[in-house]
Write a structure and sequence with these properties.
The chain is α+β, with helices and mostly antiparallel strands. The chain has 5 helices and 12 strands. The chain folds into 2 domains: about 1-110, no CATH class; about 110-180, no CATH class. A 4-stranded mixed β-sheet has the order 2-1-4-5. Strands 3-7 form a two-stranded antiparallel sheet. Bound molecules: 2-acetamido-2-deoxy-beta-D-glucopyranose (NAG) (4 copies). The site of one 2-acetamido-2-deoxy-beta-D-glucopyranose has 3 residues, from helix 5. Keywords: Signal.
Length: about 220
């Protein structure tokens, strides 16, 4: 049975003379192309061929799948072995990869390129990139994101605005939260702790130096 399906793959290997200019059908054309070439959506594959470095289309049943974070690729043109492979770094796959309808990981990662926005995390194979406002330059979120320290552009509005601060105050998105979480330090999340060390900068030294300067003036 297994041997036979391998023969089938080989004989149906190249539907069209694919080459470097070949692209898998876009979503809206997928069904049409699949039905025309293989008789059904489930029987049609269009995947990246690791050995030949371009996409190849072929017919085979049943459809195949891979775990989240992975896609399917053609691993050997000689015997048509399919194999799981990590998503490219600019793509992610949060749920099971299915061969019918997909040639690569499903979502392209967002970019942190709005005004004042910087990358907080590059994401994972299964998750989008996250962004934060550059508070070292005085930016803060316009709308508080779901997670206070970072924002996921594919899920929410990540716009930043420039906040005008008192002169002796360094803007810190964590300060408020520190006092809150002090009530129960055990409820701290891991990423909160990370940020605390970055943001524990206070402007105390400058305040005290201005007060001593004032004092000195009065005595002289
Ligand atoms: C198919 O080819 C790969 C290497 O290209 C090899 O590792 C694998 O054993 C082969 N499978 C079969 C069934 O021949
Ligand atoms: C994200 O990836 C880019 C390019 O690989 C790298 O320069 C940057 O430091 C990464 N950022 C984070 C927060 O990991
Ligand atoms: C803090 O944690 C204790 C138990 O660890 C709990 O009894 C108490 O209700 C918590 N307080 C707050 C404000 O969450
Ligand atoms: C800030 O300065 C005040 C007095 O100028 C001092 O009592 C306080 O301990 C300082 N706090 C920190 C965190 O250094």
């Amino acid at each position: 049975m297994y041997i036979c399906s391998l023969c089938l793959i080989m004989s149906l290997w190249k539907l069209s003379e694919s080459g470097f200019s070949f692209h898998c059908p876009v979503q809206s054309h997928w069904k049409h192309r699949a039905e025309n070439n293989c008789g059904s959506v489930d029987g049609y594959f269009c995947l990246f061929n690791r050995n030949e470095h371009y996409f190849t289309e072929f017919c085979r049943k049943p459809p195949d799948f891979e775990a989240p974070g992975q896609k399917l690729i053609v691993a050997g043109s000689s015997n048509g072995t399919l194999q799981g492979a990590d998503c490219n770094s600019d793509f992610y796959q949060p749920f099971k990869f299915l061969s019918s309808g997909n040639s690569r990981c499903v979502y392209e990662k967002s970019y942190c390129n709005g005004e004042g926005l910087v990358t907080s995390s590059n994401g994972t194979l299964e998750n989008d990139r996250s962004c934060r406002c550059d508070y070292t330059r005085g930016y803060n979120f316009i709308n508080q994101p779901k997670h206070r320290c970072y924002c996921v552009p594919s899920e929410e509005d990540c716009s930043c605005h420039l906040k005008i601060c008192p002169s002796n105050h360094i803007l810190s998105p964590v300060r408020k939260r520190v006092s809150k979480s002090n009530i129960n330090s055990s409820t701290n999340e891991g990423d909160d702790i990370e940020d605390d060390s970055v943001n524990s900068v206070t402007a105390n030294s400058s305040t005290s130096s201005t007060t001593t300067a004032k004092k000195r003036k009065q005595t002289s």
